[in-house]
């Protein structure tokens, strides 16, 4: 009786796991194909629409110069660059000025209800006395390598979008990055399929490293103040835009846009994930439990079933594992990571699951969302 029950449980787990991967392959907006790509603007007459780039920067001396210089080098000349120097102690402001920023402001002390980055972005926007057509909200570590990035973003916005957001190419040079970073993009697009973000009113998301936002839409939603307490600010902004009747585009970019912030070890990547993972789950213990169960069935069970001793269940597990690796492969290729890492997705998912649990523990201990010495997500 016990053997039959064990075999049934293994068989059921294998069937559920394979069913999940079948759903992800066929009915999740084709997120894994990476089809939504920002194209090059082309060789037509450049747009004369005005853009103000706002870069929040807190102790970013290591990367701020490359970010500003890359924007200054854009072929689109109707651009102002504002750097919001957020209580930096490493000369970030002076480096930004020397690199070509039009204006560097010192962020005043933030009110307690604001997240630090959003207060800096708000201060940068308020410092713009003109009325640009667009605001480019970008981070201090983002390098717009291709000189036509800005024209490409504007061209995409002019197709009828109020917010154009690009998942930039994250650093993928160190061994830990090659093993773990592609999955970050894979999991994000699985959660927010770009095709659904573009076409479905109920799915809203953005990638905060590079967001081109119409000024009129920003004013319609009440400015950055409308999301002042959001830890995952990019997705919160996209939700506000959609709620106001706007359209959002999300994808990757053919013109090169990349992050210059390295993650030299698995520990650094785990810290990056745990900073906001529990906030993504709305601080819900029930959603956390569901996440543990769902990720266990989707990623871990297929490999575990190979050692179950139940041949039908092991066959289902193997099929689910191979299907998952096949869906992950386009993202691995996009990041030029070793192809064999696609087959390591179960282990990578376990790493992300542990980081998510750590995020919840940090939140309950009052140490959640730490960034540059600031605690931004803590119970109570």
What does this structure look like?
- The protein has 2 domains: 130 residues, no CATH class; 190 residues, Spore Coat Polysaccharide Biosynthesis Protein SpsA, Chain A.
- The chain contains 14 helices and 10 strands.
- Strand 2, helix 2 and strand 3 form a beta-alpha-beta unit.
- Helix 1 runs parallel beside helix 13, helix 6 crosses helix 13 and helix 10 packs across helix 14.
- It starts with a helix and ends in a 16-residue tail after the last helix.
Quick summary:
With 380 residues, the chain is an alpha/beta fold.
Total of domains = 2
Secondary-structure element pattern, one letter each: HEEHEHEHEEHEHHEHHEEHHHHH
Distance between the termini: 49 Å
The biggest beta sheet is recorded as: 8 strands, mixed
The shape is: globular
Helix content: 40-55%
CATH fold-level topology of the largest domain? Spore Coat Polysaccharide Biosynthesis Protein SpsA, Chain A
Task: Specify the CATH homologous superfamily of the largest domain.
Answer: Spore Coat Polysaccharide Biosynthesis Protein SpsA, Chain A
Number of distinct beta strands: 10
- The structure class reads alpha/beta
% residues in beta strands: 5-15%
CATH-scheme architecture of the largest domain: Alpha-Beta Complex
